Amino acid sequence: MSDSPDTICRAALADGKLLIQRAEASGECFFPPRLMEPLTGDTGWTWIEASGLGTVYSVTVVGQRPPAEPYNVTLVDLDEGVRLMSRIEAIAPDAIRIGQRVRLRIAREGEDFVPLFDPA
Amino acid sequence: MGGHFPRGKTAIAGLATYGFDGANGLSPIEMAAKAGLLAIADAGLALRDVDALFICLPDDFFAGLTLAQYYGISPRYTDCNRTGGSAFMSHVAVAAMMLDAGYIDCALIAYGSNQRSGTGKLVSAFRPNPWESPYRPLIPLSPYALAAARHFHEYGTTREHLAEVAVAARGWANTNPQAFAKGPLTIEDCLNARMISSPLGVRDCCLVTDGAAAIVMTRADRARDLAKPPVAVLGAAAATWYSTVAQSRDLTTTAAAESGPRAYAMAGVGPADIDVVQLYDAFTINTILFLEDLGFCEKGEGGAFVSGGRIGPGGARPVNTDGGGLSCAHPGMYGLLAIAEAARQVRGEAANQLPKADVALAHGNGGTLSSQATVILGSDATV
Fold first, then answer.
1. How confident is residue B1, by pLDDT bands cut at 50, 70 and 90?
2. Domain assignment of residue B363, given as a range
3. Nearest C-alpha of chain A: how many angstroms from B89?
4. Is A86 close to B153, i.e. CB distance below 8 A?
5. If B271 and its partner were Cys, which of A17, B42, B113, B295 is the partner (CB 3.0–4.6 Å)?
């Protein structure tokens, strides 16, 4: 087993789980994976599985030259208080709204397992 | 609050910009070297006078060594800060303190790029972030688009507001002989331009041009005896809040809200004292964010502030009087061009010279709104 929090988190994605870290002292969650809590430097933390519920913080639709389809790049705030970049599926890109509730789904893309979201 | 800074103890003694219309076959290091030679000559100095090199190139992480060898000089200090387009504002801060301390006597700060003629696209040293690259954000564009979308959501900013920024920049460029993009540009043109990463369209994006710039800094007493009027460095401050956009806590406020007040405190001035403002306008939203964060208007009011031509020619608050990265030149890392234009205004020799330009602010942006750095310059009378 690797000592790298980043590697451990990626391995969990392949098992269908998004792990985030929670500092024991402050109770604050953080992501992407690090060796310590940002700012405090606290190395006392535990993995928790994200609930998977979140809210759209911002969204941009990348237009491509046809016939390629436009796609969205979205920032999602998980209910645990961490923000990540992702993509919202099962909805037209221009229908995505800031403040919209979304639910996590982990999908395989090529060799990687990536967190995606659907409307909740 | 400002931290210790040698206010007015150092000055920009020479400056040059070069090659916005094309590199004519020169490589990035040749472009930087050419601008450096022009700046040294502008100061009335010689190459052998330079004992410190500050340089950041798009394609050479060891550019300090490369330029030293190219010039055949043996600098006491070289610095290749890599915060992106704000690197040159940090160079000014470091050079000012080293000059004042007597550690160095003459600093050359240089940049050059042939990105348009060489590759036709922005050359970036960005390393893909594995937690963001699977979603294919356009880098650097999409992070700025995300900031703009959030600003629209929170404050009611519109694409018309963004267009005002682009139209103002073009207005300045139209009377600047060095500017790359000229010709009429209307609000409608901007609104009808092809969308790239919403809400930012083609006219919200900076140019991709060749170009080089350089400045020479010495202690103020020496600068007063040189060829050109000295441009005093009154303050210089940098701030870094994050690297990748998802790690921003609040995408509508940038670290300019920290670098600006620190630079003001060093310089002993506030926004109302600034006669001319140069902001790194990689995208139109930048100008709005930085005008707010640097205190020229309240947070959220930037869209209304830039409306009605206020920041364009003849407007009450001149911004980017050379045409900025949007219409003058954007050779990849624009920061040094903003400093050069601010210094030209203070000297009284800008293409679009303002009647009063005693105090100028040049603000640099690096990464994806990640690094912010502010330099405040003044005429000798302000020292």
1. low
2. 10-121+206-377
3. 26
4. no
5. B295
